[in-house]
Q: What sequence folds into this?
């Protein structure tokens, strides 16, 4: 993820907030066509939902609710990665999106690790 500070962020909440802001910024640079409008809407929804669901998990009343919210955040991160892969090379140069795809992958890994530690079973 391109951040102006250049520092690696280890606080998951701050990292998710920065990622959300990056997704919003990225979508502003996409051309406005019929097909890109659909992608933009979906990408903003999924990209900002990751952090929102993680924040909801923090307020969970039960372990089951916590797991559910983190699992939703992971699902949204996977969707965001999908949209990033679609725009890479089609709407923006791949080089401009590579770091964002990598950041999405790292977020997915972090959320997966949290879920695995809590005993969550992934379905294929």
A:
């Amino acid at each position: 993820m391109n951040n102006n500070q250049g520092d690696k962020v280890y606080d998951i909440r701050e990292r998710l907030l920065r990622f959300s802001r990056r997704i919003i910024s990225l979508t502003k640079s996409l051309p406005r066509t019929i097909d890109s409008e659909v992608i933009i809407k979906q990408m903003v929804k999924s990209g900002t939902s990751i952090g929102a669901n993680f924040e909801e998990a923090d307020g969970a009343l039960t372990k089951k609710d916590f797991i559910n919210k983190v699992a939703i955040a992971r699902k949204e991160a996977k969707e965001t990665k999908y949209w990033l892969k679609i725009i890479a090379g089609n709407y923006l140069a791949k080089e401009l999106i590579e770091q964002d795809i990598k950041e999405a992958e790292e977020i997915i890994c972090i959320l997966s690790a949290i879920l695995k530690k809590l005993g969550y079973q992934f379905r294929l």
User: Anything to note?
Assistant: The radius of gyration is 15 Å. The chain has a mean pLDDT of 91. The first helix runs from residue 12 to 28.
